[in-house]
Design goal:
This protein is of the alpha/beta class and 471 residues long. 37% of the residues lie in helices and 21% in strands. The chain has three domains: 183 residues, FAD/NAD(P)-binding domain; 140 residues, FAD/NAD(P)-binding domain (3-Layer(bba) Sandwich); 68 residues, Orthogonal Bundle (Arc Repressor Mutant, subunit A). A hairpin with a 4-residue loop joins strand 4 and strand 5. Helix 4 packs parallel to helix 5. The radius of gyration is 22 Å and the shape is globular.
């Protein structure tokens, strides 16, 4: 950790498309720039393993994945300092960054500007049995595919809705893996709602690409439409998946060794919320999103949010959002170059955000898959059920933060990432108010698990002690 300086002009958090693009532009403007990344190599989730892919056949992961290769090359050549295996566990409004490197020790540093590019998380998909071994998210399966070339064996079923579900199916089929079935939970009312935005989607860059992908998957895999209920069943691990279709009230069972769940992605807001950045409930994306300026500026001066952490728009849009935020930062030192970069980014964003409202509406997760009932686990870390949450609201518990005192929801290792939205929506439904009124967990550093030994490794000078006391 000795090569990490105490001060930087720009600190970027996250090495996905937005983070790499922002760091590249800032470094090329001769600003001292550091990029902290939890992974061992740049790429984020969408371009994971782009510099060391296990696949020589590029058709397996597809052209959208390999579009990240020039982004990673440009970042590597930009002069920005790259720090892999770095966990940012603290960020203050004064832009003091707390970071742990490979679990070997912690460090505090100061930045004049901070770009949060932590991307997206998969939306919680709390169905009965989702904690059984053999059940995982589509994103986790894709991570293993991209980073290690690992594909599921045995009976494999995908369930849910959203572009990533279909992309993963397409990629798995390209590897030669078999998929028994796809349980499509896309609701009929969502399809009807999306028609209002069809005209813009027809003119988007996603239409033909999406149709081609869907045709190939549907030609090779049994797709069961209008699924209204899903349950993972088994003793010790998942053995069957039971589902119900809108056309029949009778459940059907399929044998399964691997059940891959997905119902969209949402902004990763934990770090941004911990620093006090203003957020609002987005009724289209059904998630909390930060309130941003056109350049990604936040309510906390000097801190920007770039990429899907500011609202889901996809990899291409994320990269251009990173450039847009960086252009605002570098404007003071290179105004003409910043203006050119901003103009190019704004034009590209118009193209790559066109059609997003159609996708948001079409793949809107059904209420029964966002708001579980009965003994379905909501908070996996503390094993809190939907019934417990509903009963606690009936006692007068008004929000997620008070729920912590009753049930410890959101106090486990994931710090609410796998239950936060579910808890908010369950409380909002029971109180008959909006999720905005209910709010989200009050997040404080450390926003990621860190050991006492790492904290103890902090320098013992007076300034560092005061910083830790502030935390």
């Amino acid at each position: 950790m000795s090569d990490i300086r105490d001060e930087y002009d720009v600190a970027v958090i996250g090495a996905g498309p937005a983070g790499m693009a922002a760091a590249s532009l800032c470094a090329r403007a001769r600003m001292s720039t550091v990029l902290f990344d939890e992974q061992p190599a740049p790429g984020g989730q969408i371009y994971r393993g782009i510099t060391r892919s296990p696949f020589s056949d590029r058709s397996i992961l597809g052209p959208d994945y390999w579009a990240g290769e020039p982004v990673a090359r440009e970042f590597a050549a930009s002069g920005a300092q790259y720090v892999p295996r770095a966990t940012v566990w603290s960020l203050t409004p004064e832009r003091e960054v707390g970071v742990s490197i490979a679990g070997e020790g912690a460090q505090l540093l100061q930045a004049k500007h901070v770009v949060i590019a932590t991307g997206a998380l998969e939306r919680p998909f709390p169905i009965p049995g989702w904690t059984l071994p053999g059940v995982m998210t589509a994103g986790a399966a894709q991570t293993m595919l991209k980073s290690s070339g690992i594909v599921p064996s045995g009976h494999t079923v995908l369930a849910g809705t959203g572009p990533l579900l279909w992309l993963l199916a397409w990629q798995l089929l390209r590897t030669g893996a078999s998929i028994d079935a796809i349980l499509d939970t896309t609701a009929r009312e969502s399809r009807a709602r999306a028609n209002a935005h069809l005209a813009s989607f027809v003119l988007s860059p996603y239409l033909m690409k999406g149709l081609k992908l869907l045709r190939e998957v549907r030609r090779r895999v049994r797709v069961i439409n209008d699924v209204t209920a899903v349950e993972a069943q088994g003793e010790g691990r998942v053995q069957t998946v039971a589902y119900v279709c809108a056309s029949s009230a009778m459940p059907v069972q399929l044998p399964v060794d691997n059940l891959l769940l997905h119902q969209g992605v949402v902004p990763n807001v934990n770090l941004a919320m911990s620093v006090g950045i203003e957020h609002r409930w987005d009724g289209e994306q059904l998630a909390f999103v930060p309130v941003l300026t056109p350049f990604g500026g936040t309510s906390v001066p000097g801190i920007y949010i770039a990429g899907d952490g500011g609202g889901i728009a996809g990899a291409q849009a994320a990269g251009w959002r990173g450039i847009l935020s960086a252009s605002d930062i570098v404007h003071a030192v290179h105004p003409q170059a910043a203006k050119r970069a901003a103009a190019t980014a704004q034009a590209a964003l118009k193209r790559f955000t066109r059609g997003r409202r159609f996708l948001d509406a079409y793949y809107r997760p059904a209420a029964q898959f966002r708001q579980p009932a009965g003994d379905t686990i909501v908070c996996r870390c503390e094993e809190v059920t939907a019934r417990q949450i509903v009963d606690t609201v009936a006692l007068g518990c008004p929000g997620p933060n008070q729920m912590k005192s009753f049930l410890r929801c959101g106090m486990g290792p994931c710090q609410g990432r796998l239950c936060g939205l579910t808890v908010t929506e369950l409380i909002a439904r029971q109180r008959n108010v909006s999720p905005q009124e209910v709010g989200y967990y009050r997040l404080r550093p450390p926003v990621k698990p860190i050991t006492i030994a790492e904290l103890a490794a902090l320098p013992k000078d007076e300034a560092a002690v005061k910083a830790v006391v502030r935390i």
